[in-house]
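Handout, page 2. Input:
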Amino acid sequence: MKLLFRCAVSCVFLGILAGCSKEPVNCSDEQLLADVREFVASQVFEGTAAQLRQAGRSLKIEEPSTLAYEAGLSVTSCSAKLMLSPIGSIALSFRSPNDERNIPLRMNVLTPVEVERVRSLLQDAGVDLPRSLTSMEGVHPFNAIDHPVLVERLQDLLGNQYAAFRERMQVGAELKRHGDLLIGNGCKAHFCGSDHASFALDLRTHQVVAKMVIDGKTPLIFGVQKENQLPLGME
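Output:
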């Protein structure tokens, strides 16, 4: 009797698990393909999420098919073709994400030649591609902070201090690269002794930290807790 009861409980438990398990993602799912197009765009240029999403709409993916379903992770491995022209395409392989398990979308990395082909396609479609952040070394800081990624990151970081920060980037030396960090130092025209600012951008993660001095007062620190936690090179 106890054995029958245990079997019954086990069957019910397994049934609940089966009913609660995440449904397999279809490789032709519209949201999945939109995410893949955005991922492709992110390999071609560095832009804001909105820019990457907009660029992705100019890309066309055809023939999505299922390669495998990993039941343990509830993710689907897929293949598809990124169409470049009526007679040209790039083979894509990707794996669907699973937000419940913090598993991100994975996709093959485009070769340099493929990146240039996609770049040309986007340019022909009229997509405005900002310059690469890694190429910003040597640019004046006041011009550099107009890059869409820096605008977005600095606005999020600085909030209502953003305008004051920009004002303290009017004069300054060219941006310098320290490892994976791009560092800019500037000051307010005619007030460099009392009003200056600096930022450091991580080229891998796009995370930003900043420092600003107003009227010679105690520096305002953004992105870290203490001034001594700021990267070297920020003045």
